[in-house]
Design goal:
Largest sheet: 9 strands, mixed
Number of strands: 20
Helix content: 25-40%
Structural class: alpha/beta
Strand content: 25-35%
Strand order of the largest sheet: 5-4-6-7-3-8-9-10-11
Bound molecules: thymidine-5'-diphosphate, magnesium ion
Shape: elongated
Number of domains: 2
Length: about 425
């Protein structure tokens, strides 16, 4: 007999969800298929290549090489049989062709269209049915259905959201180029980061050939890989041995120069830190840091004066990283402090020695992460000695001088022959 409910709330409608309840252990990994771009350093940062249906934003300052990188990647993928559509909003197809000729990259399945209207871009994509779509740049896209002027934050964000929807619906690997200014203020990339799957930042010193590629967000892989490239006459070239390149023009044993094994993401890199100390009569001596953290340099000069009797009060202190790298980690503290001390005392640090360690406000030398990997990289490049924090384990091929504080590290170097 059936129950007859006469009172209370109405019975819930029967729903049949599409979703599945699964034991967590039986859930597969993402099962994504990625297509290598053929640009080795880009694939390294992407953790393999571009994932179908994913949208990757490449952000960087104007002139850094974004269009070159995208064109090289598309050309390589087209060479390997992928149908690639490049939408150019900033340059004419003739300009793109000129760049492609310079790169010797004109495969037949690389298609180009000059277009800035978003509905037209999507219509072209619908006709061409590419495997890979690239839009250069997202700031030039204009969507008549969306409010705001072309290039405004609303336009760029709504436009990107539509591209993302399209990419998901059509399982299309998509690259978006976005310009960023130094402070990230320009409408675009910052506002897009949560819309896209992957955000790559492409930067470097425009006056140097060196370019760094990093993932700041990545739904399908690691975010701590560093890609190093060099802008050459015929496009971007991967730099597998970045340390050797950073050290190429160094004068071993030069006054005020110290080599530090730093980490950039997952990658150990050897960089040359330089200091110059020069007398001044100015009431406020200058503390100048190029490609280094300003406040750390000020802190280290104070620690040197207080704990190591290095006289810097009537001196300007200039510090820099040679070769276009940027150093922002405390693991380079001791090397930087010793470079300043050496410059102040007109001494040289031996050319076969690297220096590693964080420096505390009490002048103590603290341990840093990944010391063995950093020191192995130093040994690989022929360095035979390292000044390191007390707790550092032995590393084959390099002799360690373990120190507890700044003064001890200066004594070690004074004893060492240059
Ligand atoms: P570009 O890719 O146009 O930069 P973005 O799209 O980020 O604005 O390239 C910028 C610079 O790179 C440009 O000044 C010329 C230089 N370049 C080379 O040095 N070699 C090359 O092979 C190419 C294509 C460009
Ligand atoms: Mg460009």
């Amino acid at each position: 007999m059936e129950d007859v409910v006469t009172d209370g709330p109405p019975a819930a409608a029967i729903v049949t969800p599409d979703s599945l309840v699964l034991p967590l252990a039986e859930v597969g990994s993402m099962g994504t298929v990625s297509r290598p771009t053929g640009v080795g350093e880009l694939d390294r940062v992407l953790g393999g290549g571009l994932v179908a249906g994913s949208v990757t934003l490449i952000g960087g300052e104007p002139g850094i090489g974004k269009s070159t990188l995208v064109l090289q990647a598309l050309a390589q993928m087209a060479e390997h049989g992928a149908r690639c559509l490049l939408v150019t909003g900033e340059e004419s197809p003739e300009q793109v062709r000129a760049r492609a000729q310079r790169l010797h990259a004109l495969p037949a399945s690389l298609l180009v269209v000059a277009e800035t209207s978003l509905p037209c871009v999507l219509a072209h994509a619908g006709t061409v049915r590419p495997d890979v779509l690239a839009i250069d740049s997202v700031q030039t896209l204009h969507d008549p259905d969306s409010a705001g002027a072309a290039g405004s934050v609303t336009q760029v964000r709504d436009g990107a959201a539509r591209v993302v929807r399209y990419a998901k619906e059509h399982n299309l690997a998509t690259l978006l180029v976005g310009h960023v200014t130094k402070d990230g203020a320009l409408a675009g990339p910052r506002a897009l980061e949560h819309v896209v799957d992957t955000v790559l930042s492409f930067d470097g010193d425009r006056h140097h050939a060196l370019r760094m590629l990093r993932a700041t967000k990545h739904r399908f892989g690691p975010t701590d890989e560093l890609g190093v490239l060099e802008m050459a006459e015929q496009g971007l070239r991967g730099v597998p041995d970045a340390s050797a390149m950073f050290l190429a023009d160094r004068q071993p044993g030069a006054c005020g120069s110290v080599i530090a094994p730093v980490m950039d993401g997952n990658r150990p890199l050897l960089v040359e830190l330089q200091a110059l100390v020069s007398p001044t009569k100015a009431p406020l001596p200058r503390r100048v840091a190029h490609a280094l953290d300003n406040s750390r340099v000020s802190m280290l000069t104070a620690v040197l004066q207080r704990w190591a009797s290095v006289q810097l009060a009537d001196n300007d202190v200039y510090t820099s990283v040679a070769g276009g790298a940027r150093v922002a980690e405390p693991g380079a503290d001791l090397a930087l402090a010793l470079a300043i001390a050496a410059a102040a005392n007109n001494r040289a640090v031996p050319g076969d020695t690297v220096v590693l360690g964080e420096v505390g406000l009490g002048g103590e030398v603290r341990q840093v992460a990944h010391a063995p990997r950093r020191l192995a990289e130093a040994a690989r490049l022929g360095f035979t000695r390292a000044v390191v924090p007390q707790s550092t384990p032995d590393v084959p091929g390099i002799r360690l001088f373990r120190v507890t504080d700044l003064c001890a590290s200066m004594r070690v170097l004074q004893k060492a022959p240059t």
